[in-house]
Specification:
Layout lengths: L2 E3 L2 E9 L4 H11 L4 E7 L19 E5 L6 H11 L3 E4 L6 H4 L3 H19 L7 E5 L23 H20 L3 E6 L1 E3 L8 H11 L3 E4 L5 E2 L1 E3 H14 L5 E4 L5 E2 H12 L7 E4 L14 H7 L7 H14 L1 H4 L25 H6 L8
Parallel strand pairs: 2-3, 2-5, 3-4, 5-6, 6-7, 7-12, 8-11, 9-14
Antiparallel strand pairs: 1-2, 10-13
């Protein structure tokens, strides 16, 4: 709820998935405004400050709660009843499409069922002005031409299907109940504080260590990389000014093959591209292109991406180099963390041993 502080309105935000790269940057962006009070929710303890840009703010305007939305939904509801946030943004999701083939129940429970449970509670709450749900363009499948927000869904992985199912439910609630939800689908994000196994930080680290960079399918998949701060600006604009029931795309116009991104990184690092890469087989369910049209966000929100890719890559390089001693101690591979699924006994969940063998490098996807 809004309160008064020094004759100014204070607005309360609750961020689910505050440990995520996108969620933590959004919190950092919110805390730049002293009128904002932020509550962070994550199933895991707060990460190393190396990954949490908001830790630079020494403020009492941020509070963290460790809550698993799968197994502790009632705790989250109790907190919501107590805090009554005006705005809720949900970044929580199981990602990593290749791993989703081996434990689809986990992905659907976190990305769909938990969202349905939360929305069912929220639809009757008068304190809520807007619920912003972070989706993904992967719900469209391969987009060879810029997809608009009304493009047909055609998911290629259980991950994408689980996100699409949640999106459809939320939009049905907006249509039938007037639920104040707005959806965001952004292209590939990057920037300081990103997980080190992602393609841009991983490439920089490998080049500094003299290690080759794996390019799945030769790096031919087309992606549009957008700086995380541009996305956070767009998310806040959608939260405050977007239409309920609307979907907004956030992307740049710089779509290119992943190999071209890596080539830019090599140039910044002073390395020869051809001598720095190894082409490896493509991943199961890999879409050829994610290219989305951000015209609606330009028109309705007045949003445009501002940070050029070349400048953003140098920023990531500087961040890694200035924290190199920490980088050397951090894992460079994705590690899956099981979340308890109430509908299944833990012993029934298939272990990921087979998955790690079959998709050994999939966690290194862009």
């Amino acid at each position: 709820m809004a309160a008064i502080l020094n004759n100014r309105m204070v607005t309360k935000y609750l961020i689910i998935g505050s440990n995520s790269f996108s969620g933590s940057d959004f919190i950092d962006f919110l805390l730049e405004d002293r009128r904002n009070e932020v509550i962070g929710i994550s199933r895991s303890p707060e990460k190393n400050p190396f990954y949490l840009s908001y830790k630079r703010h020494e403020t009492g305007r941020f509070r963290f709660h460790q809550i698993d939305i799968n197994s502790e939904i009632n705790r989250l509801i109790d907190l919501l009843n107590l805090e009554k946030p005006r705005f809720i943004v949900n970044f929580s999701a199981l990602l990593e499409p290749a791993y989703s083939w081996f434990n689809p129940v986990q992905w659907f429970y976190t990305n769909t069922i938990a969202i349905v449970q939360l929305a069912d509670y929220l639809k009757g709450q008068s304190f809520l002005k807007r619920y912003l749900h972070i989706s993904t363009p992967e719900v469209y499948g391969s987009c060879l031409v810029p997809a608009k927000e009304d493009a047909a869904m055609n998911p290629s992985t259980p991950y994408a299907a689980s996100k699409a199912a949640a999106d459809m439910h939320l939009l049905a609630m907006a249509k039938n109940y007037g639920f104040p939800v707005t959806l965001i689908r952004s292209s590939n994000v990057y920037g300081p504080c990103q997980q080190l196994y992602r393609i841009i930080p991983r490439s920089i680290i490998h080049l500094k260590q003299g290690r080759p960079i794996d390019l799945h399918g030769g790096g031919k998949a087309v992606r549009s990389f957008i700086h995380i701060r541009d996305v956070s600006r767009g998310e806040l604009a959608a939260l405050r000014h977007g239409r309920p029931g609307a979907i907004y795309h956030l992307s740049t116009d710089e779509a290119m093959p992943v190999r071209d991104i890596v080539s830019m990184v090599c140039a910044i690092m002073g390395k020869n591209f051809e001598q720095s890469i190894i082409e490896v087989p493509d991943r199961r369910g890999q879409d050829k292109a994610y290219v989305i049209d951000s015209g609606l966000a330009h028109q309705e929100l007045g949003w445009t991406a501002q940070i050029k890719l070349s400048a953003g890559l140098k920023e990531v390089k500087n961040w890694l180099e200035s924290h190199w001693e920490i980088v050397l101690k951090e894992p460079l591979e994705y590690k899956h963390k099981f979340s308890f699924v109430p509908a299944y006994r833990p012993g029934q969940l298939k272990p990921l041993t087979e998955a790690k063998t079959l998709v050994k490098a999939d966690h290194r996807s862009p």
